[in-house]
Amino acid sequence: MGEVWAARDRVLHREVALKLLDLDGMTQADLPQRFEREAIAAAQIVHPNVAALFDRGVHGDGLFLVMEKVCGQTLTASLSAERALPVTRAVAIASGICAALEAAHRAQVIHYDIKPHNVIITGDGLVKVIDFGIAGFVEAAFTVARSSQLAPAGTPEFGAPEQFLTERGDERSDLYALGGVLFAMLAGRAPFTGHNSIAVVRRKLDEEAPPLDGLRPGLPPEVTTLVADLLERDPDRRPQSAEQVQQRLQAILVSCAAAEAPTAAMSRPPRTRIMDDDTQRRHQSPSPGSWNRASTDETPFTPDALLPQRFTNDLDIKFTRIAEDTRFSHEAGPSDLAEELEHRGCTEVVVGVYAEQPGPHTTPENPVYVSVQVFAFPDAATAQDAQNYLADEGRPWQLTIWSAREGGGLTPCPDTVRRSFRWRYSQRNHRYLTAALAYRADLTKDGSIQPWLAAAARKAAVSTGPQNHHG
Questions:
Q1: pLDDT for 343-352, tens place per residue?
Q2: 30, 61, 113, 314: which is the annotated catalytic residue?
């Protein structure tokens, strides 16, 4: 549809992506209408898994969109490099795509072109869906050219069969494409192939999708069943909403996490009734030695059990927790880091964000924020090995930097935070490893603030761990 350039907004001082469409000499008459549809579609969706639209306009004979610049690589590149992906990683990426579809469908927008090339994995491991160039709208929610007025469009390898017919499909068409992408991530190729686009579409219209386990045996049954359900030729036989699919994906992720790293509750023998004379001992806090192994540690893997609500650093500056959550470890950093974490038995991470509180030693207009991630490993020795791997010096691992989202929740910080002066501190506490990273709100590059950031990051890291759980 056009060209995309990296650009800089010199007014707002931020990096952007500039999508251009030159109308001079254009051979496809409906491209301006598609460009308008893309702008309106993207403007309806505000979600961390969707590239944001900032502006649109006309310049001479060209149309342009100003969009969020997403740094990373396309899912196509990941598949080319690795062929098939590990199950947990593939399902987690599918969950990110599905979250984007949930947001789009709530905004009455249908993407119609979900494929690996339109999915970017950022350096922080965040999934971003891009390119609403052939998007449709539910029940003509906006005054734009209808899908039926435009030439059929979609990518034959991933588009739903009905997209290439007169009815053009609906939200369930996006779910079919999601199934095709998940199939490709797990099998290393799209469900349907052919010597040209027409042959691929013909096969989709006439044949059932091949069984995934025929190409990759040994997959969890719930994964192959979900893919088969999504790739049903008849839309009525597919899951009927992105919310339903997301629930199934999340259940699979929980199941995979339990299989790869059994929790303390699963690995402990069944409890027996404690006699009355043991009542007092039962309510005592566990000994620190029990925190060294998952089989003896009874600390819940939750923010409230592992993170303090507030702390005061060595400079007598107070910090309060303003956001927290438990995330999958693939969200903690790039894919190679996620694989190393999973290899060491870490599939989830507790995340917290702290904000500097007003006081005599602070600068209220530019507070310091601290992003904290807590990783749990099967035992203290594995945690020590992971700390060596993630050592602050000599290894440029780009852990995700988190911030509090307006209205609640967490969101990864933009790349501008990485370009500011920041300070990271890692701490191992029994089988738990904490990485805390501090930065100032004005994103200054002035290194003179190092003592303040270092004190905040260090105290945040050493304050985390199982000692915060009190029964």
A1: 888 888 999 9
A2: 113
